[in-house]
Amino acid sequence: MLPVLLAVAMAAASPALAASASDIAALKAKIAALSAEADRINDANDIKKLQRAYGYYLDKGFWDEAADLFAADATLEVGVDGVYVGNAHIRARLIADGGGNPGPGLPYGQYNHHMQLQPEVDVAADGRTAKGRWREIALLGHFHQDAEWGTGIYENDYVKQNGVWKIAKMHFFPNFVAPYEGGWAKLTPVSGDWKSATGKALPADRPPTVTYQPFPDNFTPPYHYKNPVTGQ
Fold this sequence. Notes:
Structural class: alpha+beta
CATH architecture: Roll
Low-confidence stretches: none
Distance between the termini: 38 Å
Number of strands: 6
Strand content: 25-35%
Radius of gyration: 24 Å
């Protein structure tokens, strides 16, 4: 509001310096635009915090806390396993992916590390919805038993409810899970139905919206945004 106050003060001090009504209107419009831009930046930062909290809760086996980050009617889709609908089924899927221990916390010797990286967050102009793309790099395993690397891409939708951002749709495209020793370079290629053991044991509510083959096939999950330079 400082530019507007200065304009009013100038008008009161000297008629020669008086700002026109159109000048004041333009200043008000600029202030409103800057305020909206600042709000969208804050929204994007809140969404990044939300997604990173999700990764942290997975790491620690806090399944209730992770499920609470989703809207009540949210969906979770993982690879070609299908779409899980609602908090209860999403929570069940998270527990199953974590090894079946209901928590809170992981069993002795289990290691979860889901790094949420390379965020691209785009907030709608009205500040009510947003989309985000992330890369996950995971290190998983059990003491003296196994260790694995994993990676994949998230394409997510977010919604603001009562002033709080929540996950509305999470779509994770796993690319590979490979043994720590040997790594992805020595993976045995999969073909056909590569639905996970979790997906078979805990059926989804809906079929997958995208079918693809993981590494070594070259599949790029669709982007929610256009190229920032070319617009394509």
